Amino acid sequence: MTTALEQPSPPGKPERAGRKGLARLGQRAFSFLFLSVLRAVLSWFLGVFKRSDVYVEAISRATSDPEVRRHLGDPVREGWWVSGSLSVAGPSGAARLATTLHGSIDDGALCVRARKHDGRWQFDVMEVIVRGTKRRIDLLRGRALEQRALRGSTIPPRR
C-alpha cells in the first residue's frame, strides 16, 4: 500500500539513484586511470633525463662541490623536476638541462649545457645559481662568479 507521499516509479523506468552512483564510479575510475597514465609517462620522461650520463655527472659534481655545499648547506639534494632537452645519436649528442638543488640553508638551480663528441660529453656550462642572489658557482672552473647584470636568471628568494 502506498501513501500520497510515496509515488511508485512508473513501470518500465529504472530508478535514477543507481545510475547516478554508477556514473560517479565511472568518473572516479576514469580520473584514476588518467592520473595513473599521466604519472607513468611523467616518470618515464624524467627517468630518461635522470639516467643520462650528462645528468648523473652534473649532479655528482654539484652535490660534492665545497662551494655549493657552503652556500646551500649540507646535504645538497637534487630536485624531482628536470627541464630541458637531451638528444643523443650514437657517439654524438647535445644536452641543455636545469634542475633544482635543495640544501639545509638555501636552494639553487643547476644549469648544464653540454655536447657529446666521439662518445664523450664536453660541458660548456655547468653552474649553480644560488636562490635570491646573483651568485653563480661555476662547477667547471671551481670558482664563484659574481655577475651584476643577469637579466631574468636569478631565482626568487625562499619565502
Characterize the structure shown.
The structure is a single chain. With 159 residues, the chain is an alpha+beta fold. It has two domains: 37 residues; 94 residues, no CATH class. The chain is built from three helices and six strands; from the N terminus they run αααββββββ. Strands 1-2-3-4-5-6 form a six-stranded antiparallel beta sheet, with helices on one face. The protein is elongated, with a radius of gyration of 27 Å. The chain starts with 15 loop residues before the first helix and ends in a 13-residue tail after the last strand. About 8% of the residues have low confidence.
Question: What secondary-structure arrangement, pairings included, does this model have?
Answer:
Elements: H1 16-50, H2 53-64, H3 66-72, E1 77-89, E2 92-102, E3 107-117, E4 120-130, E5 135-138, E6 143-146
Antiparallel strand pairs: 1-2, 2-3, 3-4, 4-5, 5-6
Q: What proportion strand?
A: 25-35%
* Strands side by side in the biggest sheet: 1-2-3-4-5-6
Shape summary: elongated
Give the uncertain stretches in residue-range form.
142-154
Q: Specify Rg, calculated over alpha carbons.
A: 27 Å
User: Could you say which structural class the secondary elements and strand pairing correspond to?
Assistant: alpha+beta
Oligomeric description of these chains: single chain
For the biggest sheet, the summary is: 6 strands, antiparallel
What integer is the average pLDDT? 76
SS field, number of helical segments? 3
